[in-house]
Amino acid sequence: MDCPWCDFAGTPRELHAHLGEAHPERVRFEERGSSRFYGIDCPICDEGYEHIVKPRSRDPGFMEEFQREIRLVAFDMLVNHMLGEHSEYATEGAEGDGAGAVPEGPA
Ligand SMILES: [Zn+2]
Ligand SMILES: [Zn+2]
């Protein structure tokens, strides 16, 4: 699969890991009233996903870990969305040793 934000290409599993490492800021966290939400917008069609979060604690360390987990969930939704809606991004060519994939841009 191709990353929608850079030139990374890999299997869905590799892309998922890449998103969490390279594009964590793509997952939004919002607080409205007493509720917290997280969301992610598809960069290809602008479709957005948003879910409420119910943290069990407001401890800062807990929230940090919690946000890391939420990002993985959000990117999972995005990868699934891309597989279903944007099959042109779901190239299989990047599997295996990744020969031919030339990284560009900021490392
Ligand atoms: Zn990327
Ligand atoms: Zn989309």
> What would you call the structural class?
alpha+beta
Distance N to C terminus:
19 Å
User: What is the average per-residue confidence, as pLDDT, rounded to a whole number?
Assistant: 84
- Low-pLDDT runs of 5+ residues are 93-103
| Portion in beta strands | 15-25%
| Fraction of residues in helix | 25-40%
Shape: elongated
* Small molecules bound: zinc ion
Strand order of the largest sheet: 1-2-3
Total number of helices: 2
Largest sheet: 3 strands, antiparallel
Number of strands: 3
Whole-number radius of gyration? Answer: 15 Å
Helix-strand pattern: HEEEH
Question: How would you describe this structure to a colleague?
Answer:
Helix content is 35%, strand content 18%. Mean pLDDT is 84; it is low at 93-103. The protein has a domain at 26-86. It has helices at residues 12-22, 60-85, and strands at 27-32, 35-41, 48-53. Helix 1 (12-22) crosses helix 2 (60-85). By secondary structure, it is an alpha+beta fold. It contains two helices and three strands, in the order αβββα. It has a three-stranded antiparallel beta sheet. The radius of gyration is 15 Å and the shape is elongated. One zinc ion binds next to helix 2. One zinc ion is lined by residues 42, 44-45, 47, 81, 85-86.
